[in-house]
Amino acid sequence: MKTNTIQISKFLSLILRHNPGKIGLELDENGWADVGELISKANAHRKQLNIETLKEVVATNDKKRFAFNEDETKIRANQGHSIQVDLKYTPIEPPEFLYHGTVGKFIEDIRRKGLLKMSRHHVHLSEERETAMRVGSRRGVPIILTVRSGEMHRKGIEFYQSDNGVWLTDVVAPEYIEFKK
């Protein structure tokens, strides 16, 4: 992504996942924002946003963080919200193993408490180690944890998958995490 689309992507993450009120935007109960209203309110806050740039950000974001509705009149973040929204996820069976990227300073807490959703709606997991590596490397030297998601699912713990392929669950207890060096 170009520098401008990266900046717009970060702005959209803030507005559509955490703080729509920052620009006076309201999301519906499923996290959707009206595209025209988003553009208007973003531009009123000195963000140079138009429909073409918005389409480019949605199409080129490497993590596929955003989605349009079918007629592209609404937009939302696919997951990662810290505000209350209902994304209408349906529980599905996960792969036998999923991965989570983190850094060393969190390992002792994870050993004691497991993976917690903290301020988000879910714990985020990935199907590929490489994705977990990229996520973990945002905060330093990554440590990749293997989650025994199949075993969790067989014990009744629900998993969901967002439109962009991120696996979600409420919590991962320490006994389902493999801590390898």
List the helices and strands and how they pair.
Layout: H1 3-18, E1 33-34, H2 35-44, H3 51-60, E2 66-68, E3 74-77, E4 98-103, H4 107-113, E5 115-116, E6 123-125, H5 129-137, E7 142-147, H6 149-154, E8 160-161, E9 167-169, E10 171-172, E11 177-178
The structure class reads alpha+beta
End-to-end span in angstroms? 33 Å
N-to-C SSE string, H for helix and E for strand? HEHHEEEHEEHEHEEEE
Strand residue percentage = 15-25%
State the total count of DSSP E strands: 11
User: How much is the average pLDDT?
Assistant: 91
Largest sheet: 3 strands, antiparallel
Sum up the overall morphology in one term. elongated
Helix % is 25-40%
Largest beta sheet: what is the strand line-up? 1-3-2
Task: Describe the structure in your own words.
- Belongs to the KptA/TPT1 family.
- Pfam families: PTS_2-RNA (PF01885).
- Keywords: NAD, Transferase.
- Its EC number is 2.7.1.-.
- The structure is a single chain.
- With 181 residues, the chain is α+β, with helices and mostly antiparallel strands.
- Helix content is 32%, strand content 19%.
- The chain has 6 helices and 11 strands.
- It is elongated, with a radius of gyration of 17 Å.
